[in-house]
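Hello again,

I reread your note about wanting to compare the complex against the isolated chains. To keep things tidy I'm splitting this into two emails, and this first one only covers the full assembly. Below are the input lines as submitted, including protein chains and any nucleic acid or small-molecule components. They are followed by the predicted structure of everything together. The single-chain runs will come separately.
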Amino acid sequence: MTVDIAPQLPLAKDFSSFLSLEGAARKKSPLKGLLRFMKDDMISLGGGLPHPSTFPFYSLSAEVKAMGPADATVNGSSLKAVKAQPETVSVPHYPQPGKTESLTATLQYGMGTGLPSLREFCKGHVARMHKPQYRDWDVVLSAGNTDGFAKACSMVCSRGDKVLVEEWTYPAALEMMEPLGVGHIPVQMDGEGMSAVALKDLLDNWGTNPEQAQQAKPRVVYLIPTGQNPTGTTMSIQRRKDIMQVAQEHDLIVIEDDPYYYLQFFVDQQGGWMPSLLSMDTDGRVIRLDTFSKTLAPGCRVGYMSMNPQFCQIVQYHNEVTTQQPSGFSQAILAEMLISHWGQEGYKRYLTENVRMEYLNRSQHLQKSFKAHVSPLLASYNEPSAGMFLWIKIHLEKHPRFGNVSDSALMLELFNKCIANQVLLVPGWQFSCKSKPSDIDPADLLNSWYDDDARYLRATFAYATFEQMEEAMVRFGKTLEDAFAA
Amino acid sequence: MTVDIAPQLPLAKDFSSFLSLEGAARKKSPLKGLLRFMKDDMISLGGGLPHPSTFPFYSLSAEVKAMGPADATVNGSSLKAVKAQPETVSVPHYPQPGKTESLTATLQYGMGTGLPSLREFCKGHVARMHKPQYRDWDVVLSAGNTDGFAKACSMVCSRGDKVLVEEWTYPAALEMMEPLGVGHIPVQMDGEGMSAVALKDLLDNWGTNPEQAQQAKPRVVYLIPTGQNPTGTTMSIQRRKDIMQVAQEHDLIVIEDDPYYYLQFFVDQQGGWMPSLLSMDTDGRVIRLDTFSKTLAPGCRVGYMSMNPQFCQIVQYHNEVTTQQPSGFSQAILAEMLISHWGQEGYKRYLTENVRMEYLNRSQHLQKSFKAHVSPLLASYNEPSAGMFLWIKIHLEKHPRFGNVSDSALMLELFNKCIANQVLLVPGWQFSCKSKPSDIDPADLLNSWYDDDARYLRATFAYATFEQMEEAMVRFGKTLEDAFAA
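Full-complex prediction:
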């Protein structure tokens, strides 16, 4: 498919000056220069590719969910055409008419941008869903969002830099940056995620306190705008606009990590899918990270990065000397399923009717169980509108020993009681961005409850069965009452 | 399976002081600390894993080469039991008796070490084939050898370090290091690959020339011991021992990149597979990189790293914040094929009878075609005993204009004539380790023939058909004669 892009839109600005030492030094691979000679009757003894006849794999197939023919639309009548039985997606050894891919192509070495057909599908999907407001945006496949974030970060952050992050955030992002010598600066959050006011305030007044005087003004912000991990918050449209305005004012690169985007529960009530930060980007400053991990399965290890063409090229070069591209087995199955079977419309319908509904139901079930079994005096949460998480605030001030012992000690005691009562929730401090004592073992939950602000527990409704969720809330409710009893 | 390791062997030495800034800073992920609570009747609302019932994949299968039952042996009678027809490898949605894996497990998030069953298989294979000479070596899966090398390099090299490399080497390795600010120092080669004498000499005399005085003594050597890319050389057993002795004397980390190990043509004549550097490692100083790219298919994007336990742990942590683990589709198919169908013995037989023989035949065919059509006065090569490459030396001294114009100009002219005559070989300079002018476009083959020593062209016999190889040599032979005519 060809992606239509409005010709009146501007081209991306030049963000060369934002490249890290590493990013700026990435170059095209010499061996890839051979490709341009491959035309006419050329016989190549050039690239060291194994001959596909040597692959011991002759065909690949999967039984997958049927989402109807590729040309199905979302209106009622065509929905009826959708088969209830699984359908078989198969990839032949050699190219065949009617097939998008073959094992000959997908199991061979390929481009750092990813399998062309799958990349085009992803680009088409981004064009439909996000419509970036500049002309030359492009898409490169990653091996999932952790891989994509690592590549984005190493492209725009050098040792000594600090990245602006939500005050509670995905720990693996911080763990990725730390060994590179890239620090982080927490930005205050509210019920809609990162506060644009706090972000603006921090940047407007940068350098006015002595600690900041030693530190260059941050140029990169990392955030999870939808169903944020761990707080479950989703930015309103206005908040998104405000964040993008601050990003423009202060010339920031925005890393939009959005794995939960399609886990928006109230798409119908809210008048459609939330506009992404990418959809508001007129400059090419947003690096949007999408993944199939939450929509299809984590084991796909396929994601896609949407961003300006220079960034795409640098990540392509990075791919070429590291991961090369996602697995050919993954790409073959995904391309054949998404392109030959589901189509853009089928995939969108799958997201709307399956992914979204599944997590809506799960979210509501956990909340119902919470309300039935947990005292609202002792704990509460803000209802999430997307994602996988309930961010439970513990009302420590109701604890009989509140003020006599530290909040940390009370939270640790509560966590231990939860474990004793066989219900596991994640301690909030694990997502804290405050600087941790250097001698702490980050993997030790019990001895490290040092953060007095961490009055939270994160519960996910993604994995447990409905029965388990209910039972978990029974246990949690009892544990809380027990812990708060005199 | 359990890997038997001789109890009398020593434990790995401590290589902590070799860790880079990045390597030393890698830590365990806090969220992984949750796993230890998962026992008894614990209900976890902890890890944000999608429920496997949401995966739209219900089964996965592949037609693969049959290598007989898992318990087949290599003796004559059991070989007859091997079926000539492909067999079907299938992976069910949920665990089933008799199956190694299920999609529930393989398409879920997993450990940074890789899928346990596949990792165990790889470890068992390493134990059979390489038998490292220390007790606590271990294996971590990678997304192929480029990914493995990138992770090894970032673990033991900091910005400003320089790595010892063969004077002709795999360009992507240099391209990986360069953006990290990691340089390289070429070590002279001969017909057996890197010279141990040159390596020892360079290190014995380190710091005696003014250029080296500014540079710390190198601590890491990167080499491709078998079917080296691009020269096709394979280290003799003695050379391997000598290299390991220098590595011990000068306390070097050895990165053994060995993708062509199983493409050894003369296993029978030479009395078995060459001993790897890992097989001689008594200290834990070798990081061995293996991959399924050349033995099964590049698109697997699965490799495995064998090394000391500290290095394994650091790469595991690195995986957890980047690629996570290889694709679940790849791992599922490979685990089921290698474990439930082929077994260790079947895989070894596949390597011996298929991979090795295929490349032996290809190598011999290209050599036969070379001898039939290319004048031995104008070009020659050393017969390779492994790998994919013929490293063709051009006898420039026979050129009528030799000495009047630069060697570079003559080689560029020859390359252009090859292209005009529709035969593509890779210019030797692309594999050169000499420092290149900074304004060079590494992807431009034609304008960058600057290295006067680069009198080589690399030809691969891996990809072309037998007919194409013959025709390529006809074209190359004529081109050479034309270029060398007065």
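For quick reference: The domain at 351-484 of chain A is CATH 3.90.1150.10 (Aspartate Aminotransferase, domain 1).

B.
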